[in-house]
Design a protein that fits this description.
The chain is α+β, with helices and mostly antiparallel strands. Helices cover 36% and strands 20% of the residues.
Length: 154
C-alpha cells in the first residue's frame, strides 16, 4: 500500500515538493519586504521625534536670549542653515539628532513678530529628508519637518 498526498492525490510527491519550495520563497520575500519597510518607517518615526525634541530645545534656548537677557541676545534677524554650520543654537540641536547627520538637517530660527522683546514669539523649524529605501524605490524620500513656537520670557 502506497501513501498519497492528501492535498493533490493525483500529483506525484516530487512535483509537490518543488511547488512548496516556490511558494515558500514567495511568502518569505513578502514577509522580508514587510519587515524591512516596517523598520524603515520606524526609523522615520524615531527621526521625526528627535527633530521635534531638538526644535523644542532650540526654542527654549532662544526664548531666554531675548532683548532683556544678560547673555548675548538673539534675533530678530532670521538664522538659517544646516545644523552642522557654526550658527547660533546648533550646539543645542546637535546632541538630539539621533541617526541623522547634522549636515543634512536644515534649520530656520525666526522671530515672526519682528522683534525679540518679552512676549514676542520665536519659531524654530527643522527639516530632514528621510530616505525611503523600500517604499518608493531608489531616491525616494519622506520630508520630515518639526516646528516649535515659544514666547520670549527674557
Amino acid at each position: 500500500m502506497q501513501l498519497q498526498s492528501l492535498a493533490c492525490p493525483d500529483t506525484p510527491r516530487s512535483t509537490r515538493r518543488g511547488a512548496v519550495f516556490v511558494e515558500s520563497a514567495i511568502v518569505a520575500s513578502v514577509v522580508f519586504l514587510v519587515l524591512l519597510t516596517g523598520l524603515n518607517l520606524t526609523m522615520a518615526t524615531l527621526r521625526y521625534n528627535a527633530l521635534g525634541e531638538a526644535a523644542r530645545r532650540a526654542a527654549r534656548a532662544a526664548i531666554v536670549k531675548g532683548a532683556m537677557s544678560e547673555a548675548e541676545a538673539l534675533g530678530p534677524d532670521t538664522i538659517e542653515g544646516a545644523v552642522s554650520d557654526d550658527l547660533e543654537l546648533t550646539d543645542v540641536i546637535r546632541p538630539t539628532l539621533i541617526g541623522m547627520p547634522a549636515s543634512d538637517v536644515q534649520m530656520t530660527i525666526s522671530w515672526p513678530d519682528g522683534d525679540n522683546e518679552i512676549g514676542s514669539t520665536v519659531t524654530v523649524q527643522l527639516q530632514y529628508n528621510h530616505a525611503l529605501f523600500f517604499l518608493g524605490g531608489a531616491g525616494a524620500s519622506l520630508p520630515l519637518t518639526a516646528t516649535s513656537v515659544m514666547q520670549i520670557v527674557h
